[in-house]
Design a protein that fits this description.
It is a single chain. This protein is an all-alpha fold and 193 residues long. It has 8 helices and 2 strands. The protein has a two-stranded antiparallel ribbon with strand order 1-2. Helix 6 packs across helix 8 (167-192).
């Protein structure tokens, strides 16, 4: 039974490593404390498996005592690293989305005066991460090209994601698709009215 438990944990760990491989801020590593005795001793490793989380602020490591499945590890690392990864390395459907800007995206798609809502978005997103800039860019393009820009751009990015590209580009395009989803659902809601 112990061999089986080890195999399950090792397999889950390898899969989690693949899930986070493209993230520079969340590194999954495996160390054999039997062959690296000094390292094992330094961090209090006394049995298999010992799983620790090391942040930039905590060089001693924090013991992980959660579930031993891939989903458990992925959820834990997403929380600790501030990420939204799914098994296999992709991003969750809400990665890159910002709730306050999703509300403004819905307001924008239903507004007569789209420029005023765009300006409101610029002000609201001034201190936010770079994903916030994409909301503004989409609004600008919708004003220039019309509401159909959402569908056209969604189709274009979806086709591009089917091709070969770096993991970093896949993440970038997935985040953009996710943000476009905030506009698309709003556009669909207003079309049905």
């Amino acid at each position: 039974k112990q061999w089986y438990q080890r195999r399950v944990v090792i397999t889950a760990g390898e899969e989690v490593g693949k899930t986070f491989k493209s993230d520079k801020n969340c590194v999954v590593a495996k160390v054999d404390a039997d062959s690296e005795k000094e390292l094992g001793s330094r961090f209090g490793v006394s049995g298999f498996p010992t799983i620790k989380f090391f942040s930039k602020d905590n060089k001693e490591g924090e013991a992980y005592n959660g579930g031993r499945g891939e989903e458990d590890f992925t959820k834990y690392l997403n929380e600790k690293c501030g990420l939204k990864r799914v098994s296999g390395g992709g991003l969750a459907g809400d990665a890159g989305r910002i709730e306050a800007l999703d509300v403004l995206a819905a307001k924008f798609m239903g507004a007569e005066e789209k420029a005023a809502v765009m300006e409101e978005t610029v002000v609201a997103s001034a201190d936010m991460e770079k994903e916030a800039q994409y909301y503004h860019k989409v609004m600008k393009k919708v004003i220039e090209k019309g509401d159909d820009f959402i569908n056209t751009e969604t189709s274009r990015l979806s086709r591009m994601l089917e091709g070969s590209m770096s993991d970093e580009k896949k993440d970038q395009f997935t985040v953009r698709l996710n943000v476009l989803g905030a506009f698309a659902s709003s556009a669909d809601d207003h079309t049905e009215l």
